[in-house]
Amino acid sequence: MELKYKKAIIEDIPTLISIEQSIVGSKTYSAMLEESEWIKAINDGPVYIIEKDSKIAGDVMYEMKSPDHAYISGILILPEFQRQGIARQAMDYILKEIGEVKRIDLVTHPDNFKAISLYESLGFKIESRKEDYFGDGEPRVVMAR
């Protein structure tokens, strides 16, 4: 399965918002629905739109907090593309791009068992739990490798 990763630009924000709208109402994911959030994300680090067979399948993004620290700020695969290994391939892609750094971390919902299992298989370990992490009333776990 070949995936394409298109580096998002400001003009892609409507597409990114439409991807995020696919999971509105999910307690395990805090959707980014504001243009200002996406402008910040695009400026802070690469945001990629994931394509499979010329169709938009999701997005993935990270930011370098320092030369030794990367933060995976989001990954979302559209429901119709889930369970096809796309999230794993996207994580492999950005982990390869990040390269060797002392710390890579991310946050996910403690009830998002599929994501936690994927991250653990890539060497991440749960470090801590934070209540109301995004101000949405839901806890998150911090995972790092």
Observed structural traits:
seven-stranded mixed sheet; Aminopeptidase; 4 helices
What would your notes on this structure say?
- This protein has a single domain (3-144), classed as Gcn5-related N-acetyltransferase (GNAT) (Aminopeptidase), CATH 3.40.630.
- 28% of the residues lie in helices and 34% in strands.
- A hairpin with a 2-residue loop joins β3 (55-66) and β4 (69-77).
- It is of the alpha+beta class and 145 residues long.
- Strands 1-2-3-4-5-7-6 form a 7-stranded mixed β-sheet, with helices on both faces.
- The mean pLDDT is 91.
- The longest helix is centred in the middle third of the chain and has 13 residues, at 86-98.
- It is built from 4 helices and 7 strands; from the N terminus they run βααβββαβαββ.
- It is globular, with a radius of gyration of 14 Å.
For the record, the count of structural domains works out to 1
Please provide the ordered H/E string of secondary-structure elements: EHHEEEHEHEE
Overall outline:
globular
What's the CATH superfamily, by name? Gcn5-related N-acetyltransferase (GNAT)
Q: CATH architecture, please? A: 3-Layer(aba) Sandwich
How much strand content do the residues show? 25-35%
Secondary structure class reads: alpha+beta
Find the CATH topology.
Answer: Aminopeptidase
The biggest beta sheet is recorded as: 7 strands, mixed
Total beta strands? 7
Helix content: 25-40%
- Termini, distance in Å? 27 Å
> What is the tally of helical segments?
4
Uncertain segments are none
Strand order of the largest sheet: 1-2-3-4-5-7-6
Integer-rounded radius of gyration: 14 Å
The CATH top-level class label: Alpha Beta
Mean pLDDT figure: 91
